[in-house]
Structures are given as structure tokens and as C-alpha cells.
Amino acid sequence: MSGMIFALALFGCTDDGSACQRIAGPEQTYESRFECMASQGTALDGDAAMAADFPSVFAQCMTKAQLSHLGAGSIDLRKSGVTFADASD
Q1: For a designed S-S bond to 28, which of 8, 13, 32, 61 qualifies (C-beta 3.0 to 4.6 A apart)?
Q2: How far, in Å, CA of 67 to CA of 78, rounded?
Q3: Which bin fits 43, alpha (ψ -120 to 50), beta or left (φ > 0)?
Q4: Which of 6, 23, 35 is nearest to 86 (CA)?
């Protein structure tokens, strides 16, 4: 085990992913990336994602450090260097 904690974050975005904001909700954490990724579909079907007022909602598993690095403001997911799961997957 790597000792890293992974967080599942939801982002509300424009259709092209150029302007995204983190969707507030209960933060889920996991001891492995695999466990976190297995929960992405459930998160996208959850209340927070369904109630979000954005054209697109994306879910991403990240380490706590990666999530902290993104900050709280608007971000461009096209430049984030990570691949996101969206509701159409």
C-alpha cells in the first residue's frame, strides 16, 4: 500500500471543460485509486451531481495534494493534466 489517500471530487463545468468549479458536497476518501475510481459512477448519479447547475459534471479521483493544488476557484480541466470521468461515460 502506498499510504496515499485519494479523494473523489465533483466538478461542474462548461461543456468544453474550460471553466470548472468544484461542486460542494461530502468529500469521499479512499485508501486506493481503484476503490475511488469504482465509486465515480455512483457519485455522478448522486444528489450533488444531479442538482448541479452546470452543463457538464465530471468526477475525478485525486490525491489530497493534487486536489489542494487545484484550489477553490475556477479551473480549466483541459490544462489540469488528469483525465476526468463524466456522466456520459
Answers
A1: 8
A2: 15
A3: alpha
A4: 23
State how many domains the chain has.
1
Compute the distance between CA of residue 20 and CA of residue 76 in angstroms, rounded to an integer.
6
Run of H or E including 81: none
24: three-class secondary structure by DSSP: coil
- Lowest mean per-residue pLDDT among 3-12, 53-62, 69-78: 69-78
User: Of 52, 34, 32, which Cα lies nearest the Cα of 44?
Assistant: 52
Domain range spanning residue 32? 6-86
Q: Answer whether residue 72 is part of any domain.
A: yes
Q: How far is it, in rounded angstroms, from Cα 68 to Cα 14?
A: 22
Question: 1 in a domain, yes or no?
Answer: no
Mean pLDDT of 13-34: 84
In the numeric block, which cell numbers belong to residue 48? 450533488
Q: How far apart are the first and last CA of the chain?
A: 28
